[in-house]
Amino acid sequence: MNDECLMLAYGDGDTAAFENLYNRHKGGIYRYLKRQCANEETAEELFQDVWMNVIKARQRYKASAKFTTWLYHIAHNKLIDHYRKNSRLPASYDEELPEDIEDSCSLDPVSEINRHHQAKKLLDCIGKLPEAQRESFLLKEESGLSLLDIAEVAGTSRETIKSRLRYAFNTLRHCLRGLL
Amino acid sequence: MSTEDNKLPDDTQLSSLYSQSKDAMPASHIDKKILAAAKHEATSYSLPYNPFSNNWHIPASLAAVVLLSFGIVSLLENDLNPVDGIIPIKEEQIESMPEQSQLLSDNLDSSKQKTIINKPVMRKPAKLREPASPSPKLRSGEELAKRLKSKQSQKRKQKLDTTAHAIAESSRQDTFMTKKSIGQEITRSKLISSGIDEQTTLPYWQYKDKGISIRFVQRLPDQSRGYFIARGFSADDAELIAQSCVFQTIFKNISDNNTPSAVTYHMKNWRVQHKDGVGKMKTREKWAEQWQQSNIPMPAKLAFNWSLLPTTQDYQAGDYNWGMAIFNLKPAQSFSLTLTWQQYGKQHSATIPNMQCAADSHAEPEAP
User: Fold this and answer.
1) CB distance B14–A169 less than 8 Å?
2) ipTM metric
3) Is B325:B333 a contact under the CB 8 Å cutoff?
4) What are the structural domains, with CATH classification, of chain A?
């Protein structure tokens, strides 16, 4: 059963449908939030808020919109609210230019020999990306959404998302140079 | 749109490396908490209604709303006292307004419409008016009510006749005048309407077709000054925005469930026609270029960015968004806006004529 049908079934009171839906998306949403907050507690709080929103909206949900797009849209809005509330506004949100993160991600090729360490280093590099690029990268990797859907979630055009992703790839490759 | 355009850029090596970090999951106590909340929510709605349960506040609130609404409507109908400082306009006053009858026959001459739309609805201090003394000819309340009803029905008929005439007259512009009062439409057509927004008491213009609805509500320059200064803009930079003709805008995809269809608009394709020529909207991107010359704090820039309606956006059926739209015109300037959007696989366009930027003026205090 697809996500939209599961959500409609939950709207009719089928809690097993919700459990199924939750299990499908909890990992992606959790990592999307965690890797943008850099604070586990905050990420957990936002994660619960997102799902509480889904629960509360169960009877208003219409299958006209793709469930995943809707879900990540809620998560995106929660993040923005969080930034605003804490005056930690993502300064680089509308910046397209890559930041030079070489210093903060300096690599030691000798110790970074296995994939596990590479993956860990990749997460460090992701953490240093400008917020908009990081969000685009995480949406691509975690949500499985199309280009248009990602653009809708981020509230921007598909060309902007393409550009953010290209910058993100370049910056990450630069950060991981010598390891890839 | 080609498939290449919709292709997501990819880096398989990075994706493969990232996939090794996909084991992070929420803690099990969070899973339990959320699933319990979902279960509780689903079951709480299916319980039979018990009037003696603790959920008394919902019916009580509904009853209070009904009672209050009834009271307010009665007050408005009697038209004896001003409500919230607004003097309601009587039908007789509307009838006697010269601009209206001229507008009806003049097929909405823009300069005349300007005088109507921009006539400020003054917020006067509430004055107690003496109730009109009953006519000596009327002996009872019942008789008064009968006469009033008959008079109103005659007027309504006359108005309908006039309206029908106006529709025929103004078919080219597809616009006609009906009423002038806060919260009610002053011009209306099949697709375009305008009037005074209930919440802001400022003029609005709206286009509504079966696929989309877009509403522009004037924002006063002072509102923009206050809003942006509070978000970190200097007075000079806030002034730039205030002097650029700002509207609060709500865009909705109203295609129904039977024929749901995504809508896309690109504000860059919209055209603003005014007395000096044709221009474009001032989008986020244009402002970003301008802000590069100023020393505006990044949080303020970000707040600005989020306050504006996105330059381009896709809407699924039922989706909506709102934000400010900036027309790059001077206060009080008149213009027509041509909107374009894509839906049902086609390009659509519509023109909203005779829109007007809010004037940068302050109501004079009344003489004591």
Assistant:
1) yes
2) 0.81
3) no
4) 3-85 (1.10.1740.10), 103-174 (1.10.10.10)
